[in-house]
Every structure is written in C-alpha cells, then in structure tokens.
Fold each of these.
Amino acid sequence: MISVAALQMPHSSAGDQAAVRQMLREVLVGREDPEGFFAMCVSILGHQETRSQFLSIIKPLSTANIRLHSVLSSIYQEYFSKTEDDELELALALSLLEMKDQQISTPNQLPPHPGVGGNASCVLRNSNAKSQENGCTQQEDVPGREKSAFVAQSMSGSKENFQENQTYKSTYAEVVDNKSHGTSQPLYVPDSSTSFSMPNTASVSGQVMKEGDLNLSKKPRCSKNRRQRRKAAAQQIRHHLFYFGSGETLDSVITLLLSDVLSWVHLSFLSLFGVLRRRRVQGSPLLWGELALSCFCASLERIGSHLIFLKASGEGNEDGSSLHTLKTLIKETGAQTVMANALYEPWLKERDDVVFSALHKEGVECKMFHSYCLRDPFSVSTEGVGLRGIGSVSHFMNCCRQNPGASIGVPLDPPVSLPSPTCWPQGVPLDMLGLARMPRRKDGTIIDWAENIRKSWDFSEDGAHARLEAFLHDGVYRYEKESGRADAPNTSCLSPYLHFGQLSPRWLLWDAKGARCRPPKFQRKLAWRDLAYWQLTLFPDLPWESLRPPYKALRWSTDCRHLKAWQKGKTGYPLVDAAMRQLWLTGWMNNYMRHVVASFLIAYLHLPWQEGYRWFQDTLVDADVAIDAMMWQNGGMCGLDHWNFVMHPVDAAMTCDPYGSYVRKWCPELADLPDELIHKPWKCPASMLRRAGVVFGQTYPERIVTNLEEQRSKSLQDVALVRKQFQQYVDKRSGCDLVPLPKRLVSEALGVSHWDGAVVTEGKQFLLPVITRMEFKHQLEDPDADAASNPYNAVLKGYVSRKRDETIAFLNETDFTASVMYEGARRQERLERDYRRMEGLPPAPSNRGRARRTPTAKDKFSVVPGASLRGESSGERVSKGQTVEKLEENERNKAQAAISAAI
Ligand SMILES: Cc1cc2nc3c(=O)[nH]c(=O)nc-3n(C[C@H](O)[C@H](O)[C@H](O)COP(=O)(O)OP(=O)(O)OC[C@H]3O[C@@H](n4cnc5c(N)ncnc54)[C@H](O)[C@@H]3O)c2cc1C
C-alpha cells in the first residue's frame, strides 16, 4: 500500500491536497472509482492544475498499483484530448438551454420567491441558559433530567404551552384513528411523552417556525446527514447541533454545522468521456443545502445568534476527523454537553456512536435526539405482527401500532432568543463549504445549471410554511382523488423542506390532522417515509444491491444513448420527457411522474434501477438515500414491496395529464398538437405535424424505442429466466420470491431470546416469501410467452371512467398501491370476460378483483406469502416456524395482512 500522504501537490492549497488525498485513499480501498476521483481533482484543483499536476499526483501508483495507474492515466488522456467545443456542446445539451427563454415556474405554480432561505443545522450551546428564554424541550423522564432541564425548558417554552401540547396530543391520538381497521387505536402513533424536542420554539419575525434540522423551530435541531455511501463518490452535508454547557443549565448556545472533507467534492458535469454522468454528484440537494443554510443563518442572526460552520479535519478516518474537530471545539468553548439529532443511515449512526462514545469517555455529556422520522427506525419491531406483507406500508403501520414505543411528541414553539457565548468560536464562511459550486468551462466561465431551480423555490422556512399553508387551503382537498395529476398542484411539494429539516414530519402530521380536510392518504405518506428508513436500517445495502438475490443477475441494457436520452428528457415519449425536463429544471416531480419515468427506464429501456437511483440522487432537491433507494428497488422489481404495476408511457397520461397541459409546459415544441395526440405525436398526420412545427429528429426527438410490447415481453422473460436460474429463491408453494432476512428480523420472528433452543446461527440464511407480481409467477410457467398474453399483465393504462375514479379514490384511502392493484384486477377481469365470450364459456363469478386480495386455495397466485422461515441449507421448515405462524395468525392483523400481501 502506498502512502497517500506522500503524494505531491505543489501548487494547491492544503485543504485541496487533503481532499485529493482523502479521495485517493478511497480509490485505493475500492470505495471510490477512478472516474470519480479524476472528476474530483478537476473540480478541486481546476483544469489547469489538474492538467499540470495530475500525472505527478498519481505517479506513486505506477509502481504500487500499475493497473489503477494506467486506468487513471487513460482517463486523464481522454479528458484532456477533448476539445472545448465538445464540452460546450455537452453543456448546452445538458442544461437544456433550448428552453432557457421559457418562463419556468415552480412545480406547483406557487409564485417564485426570489431570495434566500436558510437552513442550518447544528447548535452549540453553553451552560446556564435562561431556559425560559429559548425553547428547548426535553420531556423525557430520564435520570439526567435535572441536567437537561435547560433543554426542556428552553424548548417547550412555558408551562401553558406544555399543557396545550398535551391537549393537542390527545386530539392527535383521536384523529389518527385508523379508519380502515375500524379500531380506535391510534394509528402509527405512540402514546406517551415525546422522546425529545430540542431547541424548538421561537417566534422569529412573527413566524412560527417548525421543527426541523435546518430551522429554529418546533423541533429537534440538528442535523440529518444525507450521505450517499456509494462507491462512485461519497458526498454529504452533515450538520450537528451541539449544546455545550458546564452546569445544570446552559449559558450559551452555539449552532454548529460540521461538514466533512468529502462534502466539497465537486464533479464537473462536463468532465468525463464526453458523457453526461450527472449534473454533479448530489448537485441539487447540495444546492438546496447551501441556500437553506444561508436562510437559517439569517434566522439565527435575527434572534441574536449565529451559525458556525466547521470542516471536519484532523488525521484518521472520517470518524476520527469529526471527533478531532469536536474535541477541539469543546476544549475551546469549555463545553460539557453535546447534543445532536440522530441520523439513521446505519453507516452514519455507526460513526456517530463512535464519536459520542469517545466524547462520553472524556466526561462530556452527550445526548442524541430523534427528529427526522416520526418513529426511530431502530426501535420499530415486528413483534406481534409477524412478517407477512413486510415492505408494505400497511404492515409497517401495523408494527407501529402493535409496538408503539416512545411517543411521537408534539411540535413546540420556536425560541425567541438563544443565549450567546461570550466569545464565538471561529468557523469558516458558508461558501467555503463549496456545496453549491457550479462547474466551470475551461475558459473559466461558470455554467449555472441551477438558475431555474433557484427561481422555482423559496429555500427558507418561511417558504416551507407558505407551501404548507397553500396546500392546506387548496391541494389537500384534491389529494385523495387527484394526487396523481401532473398538471395541477395537488400534492404538497414539501419533500425538500422535510428532507432538510426545515419542516418536521411531526409538525406536518399535526397540521394535516388539524386541517378541515384530513386526507388519510396524505397522513400515510409520512409512514412511507419512516418505512423507508426502517428498511434502510434492516438492509444497509438498500441503495446499491437488489434485495431479491436472483434479480442481481438480471440482464440489463448498457445502452448509454438510452440512458442519456432518458436523463435529458429526449426519449420521444412526451410524458416521460416532460417529467425528466421538469426534474432537471426544478429538481422535483410528483410521485406519479416518478413512477412513470421509473417504469419507463426499467420495463421499457431495461436500464438498471441503480442508474435511475443515481440520477435522482443528483438531480432531485429532495434526494433522500432511504426513500429513493426503497422506491427504486420496488420499481426495479427487487424491493420488498415491488410494484405490481408498470406505468405505460403514453396511456398513463389519461390519469396524470388528460389535456396535455403538463406536456405543453415542459415540451413547448409540441404545444400546438391537439390534446388527443399530444402524448403520441408519431400518430399525427404529416400535415398536422407541419402545422404544429414538429419535425422529428429536429424540433422533437424520435422515439428511442418503438416496440413497447416487445420491450416489456423481454423484460418479463428476463425475470422468468433469473427466477428459473435461482430456484432456491422462489417459494415452490406460492411462487413468491424468497428474500434472505436480516438477523434482527429473524430474531424478532422467532422470539429468539425467549424461545428454548431457538438459535439463529451465524451464517445460516433464513428466507422469507415476499409479495411478488402475479405476472412473474405466471411467466415462470411459460418463460417465453409475450407480455400481452400474460393474463396478469401489469401495465397500467390510466384511469378511464368516473366510476373507476371513485372506486380508486376510495381505495386510495387505504393506499396508493391498493388502487393500482385494483386497476390491475379490473383489467384482468376484462380480459377474462373477453376470453370467455370468445370461447363461449359461462361468465365467471363476479368480485374477483377484491377476492384476489385474500388467499384462496383455488388460485395459487393469490396465496399470501407467509412468514415460513426456511433454513436455506436444508430447505426444511424450521420447527420454530410454527410459533412464527401462530404470531401471524393474530386476529388483529388478519385483514391488514391480506391487503399487504396482495400489493
Ligand atoms: C422512483 C421514486 C423515487 C423517489 N425518490 C424520493 C426521494 O429521493 N426523496 C423523497 O422525499 N421522496 C422520493 N420519492 C417519493 C415521492 O415521490 C416524493 O416524496 C413526493 O413526490 C414528494 O412530493 P410531495 O412533497 O408533494 O409529496 P406529498 O404527496 O405531498 O407527500 C407528503 C410527504 O410524504 C412523503 N412521501 C410521499 N410519498 C412518499 C413515498 N412514496 N415514500 C416515502 N415518503 C413519501 C414525502 O416526504 C412528502 O413530502 C420517490 C418516489 C419514486 C417513485
């Protein structure tokens, strides 16, 4: 192993050198790819310096790792042999500059709010705070209560506030009544006191601010580290809120954002191989992070406080550098208490545990609070519920009901002031973090890919509340029935604010329940969010590896042209293109459109779901490692709750853009086509195209694939192939896929700790049958059949009748996925009716759609995946499985499990 520290970078700054060295270490241990490393050098050192220094930087590799050296050299040669024109052309294409004259408005048509917002993140606090003055709340009844009293008082504000909160809490518990289960038990709501509530409160400029990582308000402060621990490039913004104190109360508070070296990695999207890989790694979320931090700084200034930015530095790995920086700060400020909000990504939790335990050993009191999710994902348990239907939101909510754990808690008023230390520690300016750095051309000019994103959003907490208000006054009334509409602002558009902690889920849930219209579907969305984090804690490889083993071997396309066309919104399918352009220009698209573009990428282009995940990570302003990964796994057919539907790239418009106005907005070159043909311009007569000024290949791209049915058939056949190849992962009885269970779930299911002789042995794999598309089960029997002849064909064609709309709206009250299941079942019914008519058979008994949701002995495809645990080696049922089954037959869960199992 060579010594990275020995590398020479004569003309760069020490910080740059450290960043490059750090990244090279990552390459050497295989956590970073050479391409990502090179791009980082270009970003950090600049073109000139990279050109002159790169070869000497990598020179030590020429003896220590010849292969890597030659890969890096060829990347260098290729990059610097490109002409400026190539790059410019790419930049233009990628920025979709042909649309620059268009007025791009915000995703949900709210008037744009120029200016800034802010977020922030961490707070350092010193002891002896005047608790009444600021609003931190610690309602936990813990032994250290006295010590944390400063927090409790400062956050929850007055006693009256607290009482009001209690009342609110009981109202909340009633409201969260789970309608679909006819039980008065609070849905997904724990009962007793809040598990935290840090410096909440504060009425800043007359605004009630709510809890969030980057806000002053009602909630836990601190951070949510979003790090993408992926091999190509690890990026993160990390913020921590620290409270430093020396007594029973705090006398000062310092808000701190701690960022690590890799956060400044900056990939030029022009850089590599002439192929647009990404806007930049995590470009959009980092941009949001910077703008939101700047707003948060302003909010703190208004109440006489500051936000300090620090870069983690010091020797050692990333834990080491965070720890070193914190220790230095603690020494400087004399702090005795450090508090931070919990991060749930397993690898970040691990790091924080290490840091906190080291600080603890040195006598620093450390406290971690929960804020990002409604439930701490590490505390969710399947006990009493079992594993049947795992992955579905219904199953997850059942688990939360059965094992309520700590209370979700109530939002608190934001602080009106924060006690200041006598001397503020020295930080670095926000722009030094380099979060929203724009790439430069070789001539030094900046390519501002974020112009439209900045116009589209207000990045401040005020912006979050304005959107919430707007939604509660308008969109919320259409949410149940029409949240799929892309042409209307029917969803909340709050995801980036939630992601960056500018709005807490607790507050959102609270407000949604207080609204006159309380759509259960909307409330369940927050459970989806928590579900994603629960899955990530169970399967830390969720963002990279297919959960269903056979699907790792799926044959995927490697067609870069298709990928680029999809990314740039140039597939020739107007609905897909409109959504991808909206994503590029605003950093957002609604949930329905995310399903449409994901289905297109996977089922019709056969590109791996990881490509979609990566692109979303780079371009979504709400890019979230857990949610994104869970959804792409589900879309990629390998998640726990894989989609039982495929969105058709044309017909889905019947639901989401029936009049073509969404396409007209984002693909203006098609604006003059009539409503009925705008989603399929290739069907227009030549004269109509002429009149509308559409020339395929010039003004609008040709379709990159034309044989949709064939493409789908291929996709199905590929799935059948791997399921055949890896039969050990297919349950013979039900035809369902089998997923290896993480030990934590096995223990819960077997009740290992209490159960005689039940030992989950190291290395033994337990397999669980999971929800599996019916069309896959059928295809297994006839692997070469085409998609059209598969009676369970999952392609959704859009909703077409009012009656169906109403039924779907009703089912949406239960779950979005339930509605698409319904549609699938109806389609199946139609097919069967036609078949029977043609064959002269008597009509089938009715009510098949719903019946499919429950297992019947007659229809093997309806068999509900049970939680029969099998030892892989023996293939035999584990005797303890009977106990598991017993648990699962628990009456309280039966109805829910049936629905869960079907979706
Ligand atoms: C392929 C794919 C990738 C996705 N990637 C992300 C992502 O990176 N980050 C992200 O926040 N959401 C992601 N989603 C989920 C969802 O599309 C967005 O949360 C939603 O579109 C945000 O818009 P909204 O705030 O108007 O949502 P609303 O419908 O108003 O919902 C309110 C909030 O609930 C949460 N929520 C809604 N739907 C989901 C869901 N399916 N899973 C988890 N939480 C949900 C979000 O925090 C959202 O802000 C993805 C969905 C798909 C299909």
Note: The chain is about 45% helix and 5% strand.
Amino acid sequence: MVNIDNLTLKYADKLAIRQLSLSIASGEKVAIIGPSGSGKSTLLSHLYLLLKESAAFCSQKQGLVDGLSTYHNVYMGALSRHHWSYNLINLIAPFSTPLAEVEALCHQLSLDVPMSKVLSKLSGGQRQRVALARALYQQQATFIGDEPFSALDPLMAEQLLTMVLAGHSTCIIALHDKSEALRHFDRILGLRDGKLCLDITQDALTPEVIDNFYSPEILPLVSNA
Ligand SMILES: Nc1ncnc2c1ncn2[C@@H]1O[C@H](COP(=O)(O)OP(=O)(O)OP(=O)(O)O)[C@@H](O)[C@H]1O
C-alpha cells in the first residue's frame, strides 16, 4: 500500500527522519512507538501525504475550530463527500440525517454533549474525542492517528482503540502506551532519533524487546518483518 525508500526529512537544519525505509501493506494494523521527539508525528504526516486519498488523519494538532459547534467540527470530516452548496446550507441549518449520524457517532465515543455546544467549552478529553469523531466520520479505509487517545483514561482509551481498529482495514497509530495497547496491533515500529530501530510482528513482542528499545544504548535495527 505504501513504500518509503531511504526517506530523510528535516525542519530547517533539524533532521527529524533519517534514511528510513519502510513498507506497509493494506490490512496491517501498525503501532508506532518512540520517545518524545523521535519523529513519530513527522513520519505520520508524511504517510498521510502519501495516502491522502484513502486515509483519515487524527493529528495531535487536531485542527478543530473553537468558535464552531461540536456538530460542525465533526461534520467537517464529511465536507469532501458533499457538494459545497449542501455543506453551506448544512452549516447554517443542519440537515437531520447528518445531525443524527454525528450524534450517534459521538455517543459511541461516550461524547454525550449537546451537538450545539461550542468547542471552546469542551474539556481536553472531549476535544480529543471530537477530533477522533471527525476522523471517523471521513469513513476512509485507512486510519492514521497521532496519539489520538492520549487525553483519555486508560479504559476509554482501550475501548476507543478497539473501535478504531475494528472500523478500518488499515491502521497506523502512534501511541504513548508502551505495552498494554500494543497487543492489539499486528506490527510495532519503533523510532529513535528519527531512525527506525524496531520493526517486529506481534508474536515477537515481549517486555524485554520493549525495555531494550527504550534503553539508553544505541541499538541496531531489531526486525523480523
Ligand atoms: N515545526 C518544527 N520545526 C522545527 N523542528 C521540529 C518541528 N516539528 C518537529 N520538530 C523536531 O523534529 C523532531 C521530531 O519531532 P516529532 O514531532 O516528529 O517527534 P514525535 O516523536 O512525534 O514527538 P512527540 O512524541 O513529543 O509528539 C524533534 O526533534 C522536534 O523537535
């Protein structure tokens, strides 16, 4: 589905991704782990650029509009599916079908706030679920997520992760969680200082592999993929 060969990315003179090669097949559930600043967001943004036509991206920056309602922020996920005139009328006076769809989706995410509530009045965890709902409302085959559950309690994070994995054939998700959530994925990629240092399948995942990956030593690539 996507092939990256010897990719290097930098911001001004800061190297963020170093000579990274990677293939991800359609249908894979891939977790990306790594310390803060290791390049996860940079890699995910690049993958989204490559897969834009078929992927929804739930980024850390969220890109929500504070002055708009919960409904309108989620509905933005469907803008490209409708004619501009439909979107315009719906912005002024929401149609009943998308309103009911968005409400049901929010309910699935335990986001039981009035659809008219403006974003600026929501908590951090609620905002994160609005961003997640907007990505899910895109109804794409691939989900790319940059720590999309980081502001949620562990139980809710696990429930929503399960829902996202079940709803998309391919998932590529950067996670805070080092161990528990990883058992839901087929394959785990680990970045350190912009380099791919871990690329293993679920059956090879052990606490020792994870501990070694996070140890201060510089390690060669560990891979069975
Ligand atoms: N806009 C930017 N301008 C300059 N440097 C940047 C910018 N964004 C990221 N970086 C740098 O690039 C490197 C990779 O950052 P990136 O955000 O991809 O890491 P990350 O693993 O996603 O971090 P975190 O877990 O904290 O979100 C870091 O050294 C970071 O400081």
Note: The pocket of adenosine-5'-triphosphate is lined by residues 11, 14, 16, 34, 36-42 (CB under 6 Å).
